[in-house]
């Protein structure tokens, strides 16, 4: 099969790899594509802990496609079934996963990208956030994840204040239901804008969705006393410092909303697929760029550079 590898920092290449064989309880999927995740960017830069080249297909974890082969003992799936999967080598034409790491894609959902793992992350973060009707919620960072969280919070009856750097992202947030949009430029101007929008109460819940130090600092400022700070950004590029004096004084709850339990991740994926089938999530507005597999490097560069109009890239096989 053809598979992409990261050959060196900032350089992707194509390789030929053996077709994976499904073991007992496993399913092989002929991949239609895989989403490109912001978590791919730090490995793409080449930190000290990375080893190159990566395994064929490595870093790809948002794959979808059709069941191609079944290992011994697999039940509930048949060849040709359309599925999304939890796997780690989906930047390739084929990948293998346990049968309990698959989410079925219903026939009612048209052909097209289904990065269900990424959408499932948003659903799991939202569940951990405890957002309810009547609350004021700030979402710091509006990309793929932030836009979906804006929609989910709005649908739950919350008032969403979107804080983001790009004018395009703020328009995206407005389209997904944000009541207020604030440009992420000047730290204290943002705090004052949120105070003005909340009559000085600040926010019941703040979701930080960037994975960067300054937005994390800002998010702490925007939480009201006794409120909740939800860390949805993936902080993988080094340690962070926090203003514990402020967090302590405010008495806020701090939730790290990343899930590692397979069953929880799969439940989020299944909820995501159901939401797509019901039309609750508009992927046409969110999957803005599509690349062939042999242009994975371009997809990663665009995910890093985030030009105007960009939300999420996928590679198609």
Description of the structure:
The chain is α/β, with parallel strands linked by helices and 317 residues long. It folds into 2 domains: 2-105 and 286-316, Medium-chain alcohol dehydrogenases, catalytic domain (Quinone Oxidoreductase, Chain A, domain 1, Alpha-Beta Complex); 121-256, 3-Layer(aba) Sandwich (Rossmann fold), CATH 3.40.50. It has helices at 41-45, 116-129, 144-155, 167-175, 187-197, 213-222, 244-250, 262-277, 296-305; strands at residues 2-8, 11-16, 26-35, 63-70, 82-85, 94-98, 102-104, 136-140, 159-164, 180-183, 203-208, 223-231, 253-256, 287-292, 312-316. The strands form 3 sheets. Strands 3, 4, 5, 6, 7, 14 and 15 form a 7-stranded mixed beta sheet that branches. Strands 10-9-8-11-12-13 form a 6-stranded parallel beta sheet, sandwiched between helices. Strand 1 (2-8) and strand 2 form a beta hairpin. Helix 2 (116-129) packs across helix 3 (144-155) and helix 2 (116-129) crosses helix 8 (262-277). The longest helix has 16 residues, at 262-277.
């Amino acid at each position: 099969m053809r598979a992409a590898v990261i050959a060196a920092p900032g350089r992707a290449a194509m390789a030929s790899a053996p077709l994976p064989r499904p073991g007992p309880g496993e399913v092989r999927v002929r991949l239609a594509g895989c989403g490109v995740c912001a978590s791919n960017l730090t490995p793409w830069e080449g930190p000290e802990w990375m080893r190159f080249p990566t395994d064929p297909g490595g870093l790809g974890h948002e794959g979808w496609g059709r069941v191609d082969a079944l290992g011994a003992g697999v039940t509930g799936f048949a060849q040709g079934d359309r599925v999304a999967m939890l796997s780690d080598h989906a930047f390739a034409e084929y990948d293998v996963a346990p049968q309990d790491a698959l989410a079925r894609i219903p026939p009612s959902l048209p052909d097209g990208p289904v990065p269900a793992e990424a959408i499932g992350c948003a659903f799991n973060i939202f569940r951990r956030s405890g957002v309810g009707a009547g609350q004021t919620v700030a979402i710091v960072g509006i990309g793929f994840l932030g836009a979906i969280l804006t929609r989910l919070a709005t649908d739950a009856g919350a008032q969403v204040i979107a804080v983001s750097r790009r004018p395009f992202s703020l328009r995206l947030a407005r389209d997904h239901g944000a009541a207020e949009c604030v440009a992420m430029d000047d730290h204290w101007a943002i705090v004052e804008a949120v105070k003005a929008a909340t009559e000085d109460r600040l926010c019941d819940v703040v979701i930080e969705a960037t994975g960067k130090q300054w937005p994390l600092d800002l998010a702490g400022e925007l939480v009201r006393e006794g409120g909740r700070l939800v860390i949805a950004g993936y902080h993988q590029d080094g340690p962070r410092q926090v203003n514990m004096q402020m967090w302590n004084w405010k008495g806020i709850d701090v939730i790290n909303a990343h899930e590692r339990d397979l069953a929880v991740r799969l439940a989020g994926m299944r909820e995501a697929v159901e939401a797509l089938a019901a039309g609750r999530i508009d992927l046409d507005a969110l999957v803005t760029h599509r690349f062939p597999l042999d242009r994975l490097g371009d997809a990663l560069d665009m995910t890093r550079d985030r030009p105007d109009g960009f939300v999420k890239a996928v590679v198609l096989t």
